[in-house]
Design brief:
It is a single chain. The chain has one domain: Rossmann fold. The protein is of the alpha/beta class. It is globular. This is Methyltransferase type 11. One of its GO terms (biological process) is methylation. InterPro entries: Methyltransf_25, SAM-dependent_MTases_sf.
């Protein structure tokens, strides 16, 4: 797989503060209803009898709350303190504090969990944040480490058919800064590349939002 290593890491690192500022200004930036991918993932996880769920990049918790309401024990990570505090407040308000553990963590660092701690992992558009391919390789290995044998990883990512792909400012690899947000776009080759140690169950393409955004929903099983 080809790699352009000329990535502007300084720009990527500034995304943390940008998201902090955005979440502070907009308490429910993505709305309060659960995303369609979270609803579909819930059906998949329930069918497979999964209970212990790790959510990465929980944002302000719209999917986190939905998972907890559906009987999952949810551990959610986000690298924005504002998002984590919002999730904790929502969980307390809705009587879900015992079902949700929210932690501030940068997924470029090792996940703070023992091996084989979770039945399943979910993330909605985390993979297409300001992460380089090498950082995504590391993250994929970490997810595999903390999943139990047969554990599922469901993630969504904007793909190279998306209208925003190739627009804005190129920041290296398939990474573009569009309207101050840095986005890493995926093709199927990258999905295959990051699936090392997993069986690919499905790669579904779907649309979301007003553009519309075009995404892959990837379902992996730990081998």
């Amino acid at each position: 797989m080809k790699k352009n290593t000329n990535v502007d890491k300084e720009i990527l690192n500034k995304q943390n503060q940008h998201w902090e500022n955005t979440f502070t200004k907009k308490s429910d930036m993505f709305g309060t209803e659960p995303s369609i991918p979270a609803q579909k993932a819930t059906k998949i996880f329930k069918k497979e009898g999964k209970k212990e769920l790790l959510e990465l990049g929980g944002g302000q918790g719209r999917d986190t709350i939905f998972f907890a309401q559906n009987g999952f024990q949810v551990t959610v990570l986000d690298y924005c303190e504002t998002g984590v505090e919002t999730i904790k407040q929502k969980a307390q308000k809705m009587g879900l504090s015992e079902s949700i553990t929210a932690i501030c963590h940068d997924v470029r660092k090792p996940l703070p969990f023992d091996d084989e701690s979770f039945d399943c992992c979910y993330s909605h558009m985390l993979y297409c944040m300001a992460l380089t391919t090498s950082e995504l390789e590391f993250l994929s290995d970490e997810i595999r480490r903390v999943l139990k044998l047969g554990g599922l990883n469901v993630y969504t990512v904007r793909n190279t058919n998306d209208p925003d792909y190739g627009t804005g400012i190129h920041r290296g690899e398939d990474i573009y800064e569009v309207g101050e947000f840095v986005i890493h776009f995926f093709d199927k080759e990258k999905v295959d590349h990051l699936a090392k140690g997993f069986e690919i169950i499905n790669i579904d393409e779907f649309e979301e939002g007003g553009l519309p955004r075009r995404l892959f929903r990837v379902t992996l099983k730990k081998e």
